[in-house]
Amino acid sequence: MSLCKRRGFVFQSSEIYGGVEAFWDYGPLGSLLKNNIKQEWLKKFLQKRNDTVLIDGTVIMHPKTWEASGHLKNFTDPLVECKNCHSRFRSDHLTANQCPKCGGKDFTPPKQFNLMFKTFLGPVEDEANVSYLRPETAQSMFADFKLIQESMRLKIPFGIAQIGKSFRNEITTGNFTFRSREFDIAEIEYFVKPGEDEKWFDIWVDEWEKFFLELGLKKENLRRYEHPKNSLSHYSKRTVDIEYKFPWGFAELAGVANRTDFDLSQHSKFSGKDLSYFEEETKKTYTPYVIEPTLGIDRLLLALLVEGYQEVKGGRTETTKAVKETEIVLKLDKKLAPIKAAVLPLVKNKPEIVKKAGEVYQMLKPYFMCQYDEAGSIGRRYRRQDEIGTVFCLTCDFETLEKGDVTIRDRDTMKQERIKIDELVEILRSKLS
Fold first, then answer.
1. Does a structural domain hold residue 70?
2. How far apart are CA 275 and CA 144, in angstroms?
3. Torsions phi, psi for 390 (to 5 deg)
């Protein structure tokens, strides 16, 4: 958390007013990292596939949406109140039936608390104008199913993908950004023929896990959790979570659910609209089943920070000093690193070197996300860039003025080589690809 705040990854929302619990702002570097994760997800599951399309649905939908989906009735957690300090908690999150704040053990009976944020449409706040902030992105993909399928001439199996904000009024929050009340979800509703759902379910669990491995999470830090039948959501035939080993233990990172034909059937029933699919080849009409792979972008970002964060006691560079400081290195995958290259003049009191470094920086900016830094010793600047995961540091020195080249330093190996300025763009492209 210290690194996230100090280096501009994540801040508590409205901190100057004391903050708002479970709401987080992403700073300059956190925003870039988050966007890079989204871009890699889109590249893998949209750009590289022939069977998936993207939509961007609204946060507020028709109120009947949530009646049809079952959220009004079933999207609840058990809420209890400590009779001693009057704090409220999820009853299933209590340890030894003891209040985490005062230690009391006397609670009110559990009651079901709906997690959706309620709001009103228009200027009159009455029951006729009640609506809700979406707790998931899925429902717009179901409500728009027919429009999307017909306008894009899609044949089953196909997927509808979406990345967007969701909101849940969590009773129990904590573990930094892990359990937030506002968060980004990336999910796909993959429509399949009934009877083929189990095959596609297994395929999507494998694809989801493979994505995390490709982004740099270690296999040994991931595991699958099969939900028992008695804990499945109201819409699910089968659900498997992919869990990550966070500092507090394994916890849900993503999940894949077999939602059967529940959603399309429900929306068809409540709207009166036909959401079935006509299969041209067999001349048969049916309601598709849905396999739903979903992941929390914020949780994935947190997992990547945990995975990449390294403290090196005594530092990584050789020195004659008896005591060295601890160095921090953020070993993010080069695809995800917020800053790809930092341009550093060796010294800032030589105008000609500073000028040349500025020229190199301006030359690279159209192609890569870069930083320019001239404050402090070159070693300190290297360490600053290591802390934020910058992949390469380019140093302009006296030899640069003579030979037209720079020193390029690799974050992970710390190896250095000289590269001609004229070749920098192509070489960096190659190294970052």
1. no
2. 9
3. -60, 130
**297 by DSSP, 3-state: which?**
helix
- HSE-up of 102 (CA within 13 Å, CB side)? 13
Structure tokens at 410: 């690799």
**Cα end-to-end distance, the chain, whole Å:** 30
Where does the pLDDT of residue 326 fall: very low under 50, low under 70, confident under 90, or very high at 90 and above?
confident
pLDDT (0 to 100) of residue 321: 56
Same domain, residue pair 110 and 121: no
Would you list the DSSP string of 61-92? --THHHHHHTHHHH-EEEEEEBTTT--EEEGG
Q: Is residue 326 part of a domain?
A: no
Tell me the pLDDT band of 95, cut-offs 50, 70 and 90.
confident
**Got the DSSP string for 412-425?**
TT--EEEEEGGGHH
* pLDDT at site 318: 65
d(Cα 336, Cα 313) in Å, to the nearest integer?
26
Each residue of 408-421: pLDDT tens digit? Answer: 999 999 999 999 99
d(CA 237, CA 137) in angstroms, rounded, equals 20
User: Which of helix, strand or coil describes residue 345?
Assistant: strand
Q: Can you tell me the distance from the alpha carbon of 416 to that of 93, in angstroms, rounded to the nearest whole number?
A: 51
Same domain, 276 and 425: no
Same domain for 196 and 268: yes
Quickly count: other Cβ atoms within 10 Å of residue 232's Cβ: 14
| Whether residue 193 sits in one domain with residue 264 | yes
Return the amino acid letter for 126: D
Query: Which CATH number fits the domain that encloses residue 147?
Result: 3.30.930.10
